[in-house]
Specification:
- The structure is a single chain.
- This protein is an alpha+beta fold.
- It has nine helices and seven strands, in the order E-H-E-H-E-E-E-H-H-E-E-H-H-H-H-H.
- The strands form two sheets. It has a five-stranded antiparallel beta sheet. The protein has a two-stranded antiparallel ribbon with strand order 3-4.
- Strand 3 (68-69) and strand 4 form a beta hairpin.
- Helix 1 (22-30) runs antiparallel to helix 2.
- The longest helix is centred in the middle third of the chain and has 102 residues, at 225-326.
- The chain starts with a strand and ends in a 19-residue tail after the last helix.
Length: 428
């Protein structure tokens, strides 16, 4: 692996010392013939984020036409032609286009670098990042980002230039005690360089390190070939470590997600089981109440049967008393009447008592059966409730064990110490 390259630049409608205006930059990005003489075989750019170059240029021109700047002691006026209204960033990967086209593994690495670069640019510039395009007609795999501050009434593109912002802040603060203008200017230049190094460090931490790129190249630091090879090996090892940490993190997150799903499923099953247990308990209670009522009814019917038997015995006593009286009558009459009355009374009593006793016996048997069934249902419901409480206890212990196992598997966060040096040289 090699080292990172990222560069920023601002442009105005008037142009810089090399004649590069906003319009020229847009034409170069589009690969218009007049602005593409430096490319052997120009091809249209590939939009990898945001709008097309035509749309970006239209947004810029429309915003610049109505933008106003505040003037001390006067009314707001239109922007000067040399006011920088477009900010650009170019980032390049060490792989050549030929390597990317012929090696699928290198293509995947370059695409991962591109994805991380776009994410970093979005975090840096927010909604002002209008477009990111890839040019595939030059030597190396690289992207161009176009930042247009359309939400700013003054379209201050330089507010996105970290070095310029730091230098202006230092100059605005003024000199300290005993500091002349020359010393202040020197301090402002130092602030510019520090801010640009911080900008490069931020990109290296977010993109360079995960992609195995060194912060600076060997020539800038006068490294020997052996030292440079050792640093490249270190960068590759750091990349591999980050990839392993990412894989461990993903597995941990997957385990956490699965554990949460299992816990939710177990909780749902427990809720269903509890609801079923409550329903069974309610049924058992209802069955118990019904058994109690049936038992009470059976007892009442038994009491009624006993009362009827008492009345039967009373009737028999009266019959015996009547029979005793009849015995004092003359023999023939007494014998006839006695036999006649006994048989008639006995038949009447038997008929009345036997029918009622049979009904009482059936009612008592049915009441006894209902009481027995209710008691059995109550015992079954109590057994199911005990089993459910034991299952819920086991489920709680399993959830606690899963959380402990998850805590022991969670990997520590890797620590990074970005290097600090001067910004990388611009590569076309």
């Amino acid at each position: 692996m090699s080292f990172q390259f990222i560069h920023m630049e601002g442009y105005s409608r008037k142009g810089d010392g090399k004649g590069r205006t906003v319009s020229f930059v847009m034409s170069e990005a589009r690969r218009d013939p007049v602005a593409s003489v430096h490319v052997a075989n120009p091809s249209a750019p590939v939009v990898v984020y945001g709008s097309t170059i035509d749309a970006v240029e239209a947004m810029h021109d429309a915003a610049a036409a109505v933008a106003m700047t505040a003037v001390k002691g006067g009314k707001p006026r239109k922007l000067r032609q040399d006011h920088k209204t477009l900010h650009t960033v170019i980032a390049s990967h060490p792989y050549t286009m030929e390597e990317v086209r012929t090696d699928p593994a290198k293509l995947r690495e370059a695409e991962e670098w591109e994805r991380r670069t776009i994410a970093w640019l979005r975090a840096q510039y927010g909604s002002d990042l209008k477009s990111v395009v890839r040019h595939e007609d030059e030597s190396h795999f690289h992207v161009h980002a176009y930042i247009v501050p359309t939400d700013d009434p003054e379209m201050r593109a330089l507010r996105h230039h970290a070095g310029v912002v730091a230098k202006r802040a230092t100059m605005a603060a003024g000199p300290t005690d005993g500091e002349d203008k020359k010393a202040l200017s020197k301090k402002a230049d130092a602030a510019y360089k520090t801010a640009m190094r911080s900008w490069q460090d931020a990109y290296h931490e977010a993109v360079g390190i995960p992609c195995g790129l060194a912060r600076l190249g060997p020539q800038r630091r006068r490294l020997t070939r052996e030292q440079w090879k050792a640093e490249q090996a270190q960068a590759r090892a750091l990349k591999a470590t980050i990839e392993r940490a990412t894989a461990v993190k993903e597995r941990g997150e997957s385990f956490i997600s699965k554990t949460k799903e299992d816990a939710a499923r177990i909780a749902a099953e427990a809720a269903v089981a509890k609801a079923d247990a409550d329903r069974q308990i309610a049924i058992a209670k209802a069955a118990t109440e019904a058994a109690k009522k049936a038992q009470d009814k059976a007892v009442a019917e038994q009491r009624k049967a006993l009362s009827m038997m008492a009345r039967v015995r009373q009737e028999a006593a009266r019959v015996r008393e009547a029979t005793a009286r009849l015995q004092r009558l003359p023999g023939a009459i007494r014998s006839v009447l006695d036999g006649f009355r006994k048989s008639k009374v006995a038949a009447r009593i038997r008929q009345s008592v036997e029918s009622e006793m049979e009904a009482f016996r059936r009612a008592a048997a049915e009441a006894s059966d209902r009481a027995s069934a209710a008691d059995t249902g109550r015992r079954d419901a109590e057994s199911r409730a005990r089993n459910l409480r034991a299952s819920l206890t086991d489920t709680g212990r399993e959830l606690a064990a899963a959380r402990q196992e998850l805590a022991s598997l969670r990997p520590p966060e890797p620590e990074h110490t970005p290097g600090i040096s001067t910004p990388a040289l611009r590569r076309s």
